[in-house]
Design a protein that fits this description.
Helices cover 34% and strands 25% of the residues. The chain is α+β, with helices and mostly antiparallel strands. The strands form two sheets. Strands 1, 2, 3, 4, 5, 6 and 11 form a seven-stranded mixed beta sheet that branches. Strands 8-9-7-10 form a four-stranded antiparallel beta sheet.
């Protein structure tokens, strides 16, 4: 009963500009951890929910019905547990409402940890629907563009019409992602509700063309095509004004050699893709542009084939 397992799940870049709700990228260097242990109780309970400072998290609930990690874990345990209960503890490393897949990372880490306690653990692919239960609670929508890359790693195509199937796309060699997180917050569920309900045929065809071209660029390693297609003409124009440093950071990123630039998820985090050799300088340029406006920030540089969730031993 005392065995404890801990899982780590990385943050992620949702949408990746061209693929609203259906394209995501795992982000190395930052993520959530969830520990799980069997108990004599029933169902999923929560022990601790701690922040990076090791103190109780001021905003996240320990009510199992109100926490994305426990909701995802309960879905898995209800389907495959053989009696008894599990207590989980959540260690948040991803900022809340950051556009970095915070709720997805908690949900993924929880199902990976609880899966390890099953008598017959499931294959990693089979965990996606359970992690999505937690994400759906947080964002009020069924989309896997944060959950899938956090679970599987790398660059993942995951449109709702194919779920639970996903496609791990080829990550072009020599390309890095740079993500900057301004010290701001945007509620994903609120941001989704504010989006327009209809779009013109011209917008639809344009964005479909960019998505198809970007996938082709990744598959073939065509950096020139990637530069032309890493664009969002539908969602970004509606959301970028909510991030006061958007234009300044975008201009700095493009000047420093980025292939393209956009919001990560609904923001406020911002990302760029670039040559690996330029990534560190590009990150510094993006940070400086943000701080010049009086907004504190932090950044991460990640390969496009960053690993997904794993057990921590």
């Amino acid at each position: 009963m005392s065995e404890t397992v801990t899982a780590f799940a990385p943050a992620s870049i949702g949408n990746l500009a061209v693929g609203f709700d259906m394209l995501g990228l795992a982000l190395a260097g930052v993520g959530d951890r969830v520990s799980a242990r069997r108990t004599d109780g029933a169902g999923i309970s929560i022990g601790d929910v701690l922040g990076l400072d090791g103190e109780p998290h001021p905003y996240l609930s320990r009510d199992p019905k109100q926490n994305t990690a426990s909701i995802a874990a309960q879905a898995l345990w209800t389907a495959h547990g053989k009696g008894g209960g599990v207590e989980i503890s959540v260690y948040k490393g991803v900022p809340l409402q950051s556009g970095m897949g915070s709720s997805a990372a908690s949900a993924v880490a929880a199902v990976v940890a609880v899966n390890a306690l099953l008598e017959q653990p499931l294959a990693i692919d089979a965990l996606l629907p359970f992690a999505l239960e937690g994400e759906q609670f947080a964002s009020r929508g069924l989309h896997a563009d944060n959950v899938a890359p956090s679970l599987f790693g790398g660059l993942v195509l995951c449109p709702a019409v194919l779920l639970p199937e996903t496609v791990r796309l080829t990550a072009p060699a020599g390309v890095a992602a740079v993500l900057i997180h301004p010290d701001l917050q945007i509620n994903t569920a609120h941001a989704r509700r504010s989006l327009a309900k209809g779009y013109s045929m011209e917008q639809w065809l344009g964005q479909q063309g960019y998505l198809a071209g970007f996938i082709a660029a990744c598959t073939t390693g065509d950096i020139g095509l990637m530069r032309k297609t890493l664009k969002d003409i539908v969602i970004e124009p509606q959301r970028s004004a909510a991030v006061p440093c958007f234009e300044a950071v975008r201009d700095a990123a493009l000047k420093a050699g980025a292939f393209g630039f956009s919001l990560s998820g609904s923001g406020p985090s911002l990302f760029a893709l670039c040559e690996e050799a330029r990534a560190r300088n590009l990150a510094m340029a993006m940070e400086q542009a943000c701080r010049n406006l009086g907004i504190q920030c932090e950044s991460w540089v990640s390969p496009m084939d960053a690993p997904g969730a794993r057990l921590d031993f």
